[in-house]
Specification:
- With 205 residues, the protein is of the alpha/beta class.
- The protein is built from eight helices and seven strands; from the N terminus they run βαβαααβαβαββαβα.
- Helix 1 packs across helix 8 and helix 2 crosses helix 3.
- The structure holds adenosine-5'-diphosphate (ADP) (2 copies).
Amino acid sequence: MRIIILGPPGSGKGTIAEKLAKELKLFHFSPGELLREEVQKQTTLGKEIKQYLDKGELVPNAFVTQLVKLELKNKKNFILDGFPRSLEQAKDIDDLKITIVFAMDVSETIVLKRLAQRRICATGEHTYHRTILPPKKKGICDYDGTKLIQRKDDKPSTIKERFKVYRKETIPVIQYFKRKKLLDIIDGTQDPETVYTTVKRILHT
Ligand code: ADP
Ligand code: ADP
């Protein structure tokens, strides 16, 4: 199975992808996560990437597409979270034989509230919400025991910019997959368990 999950920042893409990947044993790839890792390493490349992330802009298409192709090489089953985010990226992966594309539908007002409460662990692999999806022990990751932190781009001004980029660059991608009859729109305002059950029902798993 080859799944793509799209949606505005904070719409719950990563949360579903993490759970689905674990349950269905799919390879999970989120370019955003890998980009943040590179920034954390403070390499020359990381410093360049940081400028885009801090502004809420897309990292150049060719670079991200190359990353995705490298990561997905020889992978039969996968879940792509947050890619493609532009028409150029979508067309660049036309050969990947995607099974289904989910688009999370959540308003900017809800996303702004959610992202103020988002926390991630130091490894960047696990995501929480301080009240809706809290860790067992306050401020500590359930899986690796690292301290939870807030993403630097989860501040209102950057979220607004990311949402703007989403409208301009990613909405056309959603329409592109609709024309290809691969699209399912999910009401991302439902509680996490209901969202997950809806996705699973569509996948017949
Ligand atoms: P994305 O990957 O689309 O940016 P996340 O999966 O990181 O979104 O979710 C954003 C925030 O909202 C996180 O704090 C997460 O715990 C929380 N969250 C995820 N799904 C839901 C949901 N259905 N309802 C409320 N909060 C959610
Ligand atoms: P969110 O969905 O909450 O915005 P992501 O982790 O998916 O979080 O993305 C964070 C940032 O990483 C984006 O704002 C962008 O700068 C960069 N990024 C992620 N995916 C892509 C992509 N497909 N193309 C270009 N830049 C990307």
